[in-house]
Specification:
Blueprint lengths: L6 E5 L2 H13 L3 E3 L4 E7 L6 E6 L3 E5 L3 H14 L7 H4 L7 E7 L8 E8 L1 H9 L11 H15 L4 E6 L1 H11 L2 H19 L5 E5 L4 H7 L8 E5 L6 H24 L12 H14 L1 H5 L7 H7 L18
Parallel strand pairs: 6-9, 9-10
Antiparallel strand pairs: 1-5, 2-3, 3-4, 4-5, 6-7, 7-8
Helix pairs in contact: 1-2, 5-9, 7-8, 10-12
Length: 328
C-alpha cells in the first residue's frame, strides 16, 4: 500500500513565522528550541500528531499525520493566504492532463550506463504518483529510497505507461562512436523512449523533457509517430510529475546496473558514481590490472578521464558541417 506524504515544506517571511507562533500558542502547542531555527512546535499523539519546525532561513516543515489538516485550516488560510493543498489541479492543471515526461541518468558519470526513461501520466496516475512521493530524483538523497519509489512507479503505471532504455558501457561506447556528439546522442535516446510510448498512447499530444539542447535536435531524431507531438523543453522540468517519474525510473535502473557491473568486475559492490578524483583513482587501478579494453567495458570512453588514465588520444570532436544521420 502506497502511503501519502506526511511532510510538507513552506517558505515564510519572518512576520509570517511570528504570526504562526501566535496562532500555535493560542491552539495549545508545546514549544522547544530548534537548532538553526526560530522554534519547534508539537501537538497531539498518534494519528493526530503534528509538528512544525520553523528555521531561520524561512523554511517551515510541517510533519505528522495531522499535517494536512493544519495546513488546510491554519497555514494556508491564515498565514500564506494561498490554498494549494488539494487545489493543485486548479493552480497547475497541465500536470494532470495526459502527457509524457522524459529524463536520463548516468550522463555525467564516468562509470556505468546511460539510462533514458519516459513516463506517461494522466489525471489518475499523476495523483497516485504524487501520493507515492514522486519528485525530482536529485532531491532524493537515499539510493534505497529511489529504488523503493521506482518500484512504486512501476506498480502505478503498469507495463504500458513507461519505457526505459538502458545502454551499458559497451553499447554506449559503440553508439557514441557513431554520434560523436552528446546532445545528438541524448536526443536519439529521448526520441527512442518517446516513440516507444507513443505506440501505446498515439493520442498523446505533449511531451516534456529537461532543456539539454535545441529542441530541433530532438525533433530531428523523432520518427513519424513523434512528428506531430508538442515538445516542451524547459529548465527544472523535473518539477513536472511525469518527468519526475521518468527521472526516478532512470535513476533506479542506473543504480541496479552500477551494482551489477561492480559485482561482475570483482569490486564487491557497485561502481562509484560521478567523475571525481576517487572515481579516477579506481579507474587507474582497474586499468593497471586489466588494461584499457576492460576499463572501456565499465566506463564511457569519450570522457577525458579515460584518456588521462589510458594515454589514448581523446575522441575527436565531429566536423560541425557533417550531415547527421541516425545510426543503423
Amino acid at each position: 500500500m502506497i502511503k501519502p506524504p506526511s511532510s510538507f515544506t513552506f517558505k515564510l517571511t519572518e512576520e509570517q513565522i511570528e504570526l504562526l507562533r501566535v496562532r500555535l500558542t493560542e491552539q495549545g502547542y508545546d514549544f522547544s528550541d530548534l537548532p538553526y531555527g526560530y522554534y519547534r512546535a508539537r501537538k497531539g499523539k498518534g494519528v493526530t500528531m503534528v509538528g512544525l519546525d520553523a528555521y531561520l532561513s524561512g523554511k517551515l516543515v510541517v510533519s505528522g499525520k495531522g499535517a494536512p489538516e493544519v495546513i488546510e485550516f491554519l497555514i494556508e488560510p491564515e498565514i500564506t493566504g494561498v490554498a494549494k493543498l488539494g487545489y493543485d489541479e486548479v493552480h497547475n492543471p497541465e500536470a494532470y492532463e495526459p502527457h509524457i515526461g522524459i529524463d536520463e541518468s548516468g550522463k555525467g558519470d564516468f562509470f556505468g550506463p546511460l539510462v533514458v526513461a519516459a513516463a506517461y501520466t494522466n489525471d489518475l496516475t499523476a495523483k497516485q504518483l504524487l501520493s507515492a512521493g514522486v519528485k525530482d530524483s536529485k532531491q532524493i538523497g537515499s539510493d534505497a529510497v529511489a529504488l523503493k519509489i521506482g518500484d512504486a512507479i512501476v506498480e502505478i503505471l503498469g507495463p504500458t505507461r513507461y519505457s526505459v532504455l538502458a545502454l551499458g558501457p559497451e553499447k554506449y561506447n559503440e553508439l557514441y562512436a557513431k554520434f560523436k556528439n552528446l546532445n545528438r546522442f541524448l536526443a536519439w535516446g529521448h526520441a527512442t523512449v518517446l516513440e516507444n510510448l507513443l505506440t501505446q498512447h498515439p493520442g498523446c499530444k505533449r511531451a516534456i523533457s529537461d532543456q539539454f539542447a535545441n529542441a530541433a535536435v530532438l525533433r530531428s531524431a523523432l520518427k513519424e509517430r513523434g512528428k506531430t507531438i508538442e515538445l516542451v523543453q524547459r529548465t527544472k522540468a523535473e518539477s513536472d510529475v511525469a518527468v519526475a517519474a521518468a527521472s526516478i525510473l532512470a535513476r533506479a535502473e542506473f543504480l541496479r546496473r552500477m551494482e551489477r557491473l561492480g559485482q561482475d568486475a570483482g569490486l564487491g559492490g557497485p561502481l562509484p558514481k560521478g567523475a571525481s578524483g576517487h572515481v579516477a583513482a579506481l579507474g587507474r587501478k582497474y586499468f593497471a590490472a586489466h588494461g584499457s579494453e576492460a576499463l572501456a567495458r565499465l566506463s564511457k570512453r569519450h570522457f577525458k578521464t579515460f584518456s588521462e588514465i589510458t594515454g589514448e588520444p581523446p575522441i575527436t570532436p565531429p566536423n560541425p558541417f557533417r550531415k547527421f544521420s541516425r545510426p543503423k
